[in-house]
Sequence to fold (283 residues):
Amino acid sequence: MNELTIIFTILFLIPAIIVILSLIVASAKKSVRNQLYEFVKDNSQALKNLRELNKSFSFYDVFLPSETHTYDNEIFYDSISCRDYLIYQLQFKQKEVFEQCRRVSYNRKQYPIYKQKISEIDCFGSFGTIPDKWNKVTLESIEQEIFDHEIKRPTVDYTISVALYCSQINGRIITSKRETFEYDTIKRLINRINDRSGYFYNDKDIWDAICRVERGKVSNKMRFSIYERDGYRCRKCGRSGRYHDLEIDHIKPIAKGGKSVYSNLQTLCKRCNQEKGDTYYGN
Ligand SMILES: [Zn+2]
Fold:
């Protein structure tokens, strides 16, 4: 052997052999582990019982909604709470909410019965004949691991989480707030929302919350595109003004069911808006 061959052997061949050997050992270990898992899955009596039980119990999937909104206007962000936002959304989503709650309450009734049946399974460690090379304690710990994994865990609590963000006009988030509401609270709110005659909500607290959110739907972007559409002039008296003299008005007032959409919004000067504001509530 010449010197070059020796150097080559030391530098390349030996590390390569080490790597290959360790890969072989690792894969052998892995394959023993896989064999153990396969054996437990196929032969554990406790797992067989659990699977039978799982077949006889079905739980509903539950969709837990989360509501988010980003305000580009700090004044709106500050005036609107997570609860206000939830109240607003519940006007449109109560059917869906009730359906999900029905599912949760079904799960809630079935789950304790299921858990009771699970606790009655007592044949752990029974695998039939175990090959000599394997340790029973190891098999039992694998059995426990798979068993825990296969237990069903249905949703038994219905919640809605609300997150509100405040951003600069360029979209960068400055601050945020979030809150999670439990089913009992949600149900109480829905009852109060449904307590209405025509457009008018009998519950002032609910109504104020809805108005705040409706008003808050006018983003800064929307505001400026309405000024632009109206030529930066008051649509009532025709006066043109700088931004701070102009305001956005709901043509059909929020208090009468008017929405914050382009067709229902117009530019008014401060004075005309104040005059109009005296006639209508909620604008
Ligand atoms: Zn005017």
